[in-house]
Structures are given as structure tokens and as C-alpha cells.
Amino acid sequence: MEERMFKVYASGDEKIQLKVIPGHFATPQSHISHYLEMTTMKTRCAEASRIAKYLSTKYETSTPVDSIICLDGLEVVGAFLAEELAKAGVLSMNAHKTIYIVTPEFNGNGQLMFRDNIQHMVRNRNVVILMGSITTGETLRKCMESILYYGGTIQGVSAIFSAVNKVAGLDINAVFYKKDVPNYQTHKASECPMCKTGQKLDAIVNGYGYSKL
């Protein structure tokens, strides 16, 4: 697949590069026409810092943030985002006057949960959700439901890539959108045109990477 890879560049910062592989891929919720390779974005400090700085500009100092909920292995980006928000004067309302970086778990039913020892980082907190890729918004909805269940207040949603502009009435603050990836498509598995034409799946993908078939 790697030989088909190309790059797209973030508007306003060409040093942020998203690697894109066209093909036929299955996510837990849908089939997609492009795999977005984000490994170095998540793990290299320089790239993670640039992404955090890019995303932080969407939050005004009047928006309080106590916790950043990180999905898809984005804890490094989340830590840099907390730092950028603090620099910009975004206030945390908790007693420690600092921003928590929190990772939820998925239980056996696919629901997001927070263990007892970290629930206080969500309950009565102002929360920003940070994700790698949003395709249909289903995982994001589950995350939002979980945060509300545990008593958090959702102040924003940020992502490296989003195929949708809004989920549950909230605007998605992303570095890249569907329009930035030429011919990007997402379909329900039962309605996938690539399946109907007999195009084989290249890989199964999720927020952590891909497994070739």
C-alpha cells in the first residue's frame, strides 16, 4: 500500500503533513476510500507540538478547559495542547489550576468508561475531546455520551482529520477535513460501492493503525 501514498498539507502550516493511502479499508463503523497515516504525528514531539499549536488557536481564553480526553493514542498531542492552552491564557477551573490528560477505556460492549480513580477528572470538569480521525462520528458520540454520564461538560471537539463538520450540534475543530483529501469517501459496509464492484479490502483500520489482509 505504501507505494500509493501521497501527502496533503495543512492550511496555514505546510510543515504539518498528512500521509494518505488510497484503497479500500474497513473501520469498525464503515468502509473508507483512504487510510490516513498518523503515527509520526502522534509520536514525534515536533509534529505533535505543531498540531497542538494549530488546534489551540480555535479556543478562546473565555473557554475554560479542565481536562483533555484523548482517544486514538493522542496523549502526546494532548499534553502539548494543554501547554498551548495554558500559554494562551485558557483557564482551568479545578483546584489545582492545571489541565488533566485523560484516556478512557472501551469495555466489552464497546462503551467508553472511566475507572473510579480518574472519574474526578471528568465529573464537573470542562472537557475537550481530542481524536485522531472522525469518519462517521459514531465513536465521538459514544465518547460524548460517556462524558455526560460521568458528569462532564463538553467545551469542544478537536481532531487531526474529520470527515464531518458537526456531531450532535458541536463543531469539529480539525487540522484536515474531508475536502482536503481528494475523493475521500466513507460508506456503510452494506452500501459500499467498492465491495459491490468486487474490490478487495486492503486492510482493517482503527485509531491505532492498520492490519493488512
UniProtKB/TrEMBL annotation:
GO terms for molecular function: glycosyltransferase activity. Keywords: Glycosyltransferase, Transferase. InterPro entries: PRTase-like, PRTase_dom. The keyword Glycosyltransferase applies. It comes from the Bacteria. This is Orotate phosphoribosyltransferase.
